[in-house]
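Sorry to interrupt, but I need a hand with the structure work. Can you supply me with one protein entry, sequence and fold together? No commentary is needed, just the two lines. Leave the record below and I will have a look.
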Amino acid sequence: MRLLVTGTSGFLGGHLAAEALARGYQVVGLDRRAHPLFKSHPGFRRLLLGSDLSTELEGRLAGFGPNAILHTAAASSAGYCEQHPDPARRANAEYPAALARLAQNLGCYLCAVSTDLVFDGGTAPPGGFREEDPPCPRSVYAHTKRAGEDAVLKEKGTAVVRSSLLYGPPIGARQGVLSWMLEGLAAGTTVNLFHDEWRTPVYVEDLVDVLLRLALRRPEGLFHCAGPRRLSRIEFGTLVAQAYGYPEHLLGIVSRGDFPTSPPRPADVSLNAGRLARTLGLSLTSPEEGLRKSAEVKSRKTELPEAVREKSGRSSHS
């Protein structure tokens, strides 16, 4: 399997590239900046992207012939996107549109990762939002991600996976959503978490496995990837403290109304992953188990293929 993976310097893309290499796949990482992750692994090659995804990229991929493009890169900070709408549009809408055209020209499969925040979070149905529920983006970030979804799905041989809140062990310098909670808990300071904001946290290794299964099976359309439980931020934080052995009294219970943001934070964007589970025949990791695994795994600082070897030793996938 030959994969073009965007965003390998990021949290999801780094985990995805590590698992793909552990499975013996060849990976070309498409990034905007150089970084040391995987640099000495013989199965990995990096292409640096300029300000635009130009037609020369197709020529630079000559001889590689990817079987699939897995698009994880994004401008993912809602605050940044609100203040910088033009770069947000280029990253989240125009970039996936260009990748969709590239996939058509190369004759390969494309799967792009999107977000639960395309929903406004005000009227979450029982069991969470399903793929057929109409999105209602409220922020620049959400609008641009929704535009990227449309650009990808209008082409044949494509899929979009909307992910919920993603957590897991760090990879390189990328810590993910757990980092600021763990830093506060380790310092003994109060970590304030909302009691009135709900997500369906998904373990990063689950999403990685989903993306690699999709690349093999090539189903088309829209899928939701979410953990099996709807949790408030404080409920999730309590599980984090328990998994990492920190006292729960360091967790402060607060309301979204106490900390207004621009754009406003959605209350409940929990997702229903039933379609994905039926399509791939899988069950997703409970938050307790995912956090237990995260707490056991040391940061993989991969200048080293050693990290990929460690990952390969832990993996139960064929």
Remarks:
- The radius of gyration is 19 Å.
- The longest strand covers residues 109-115.
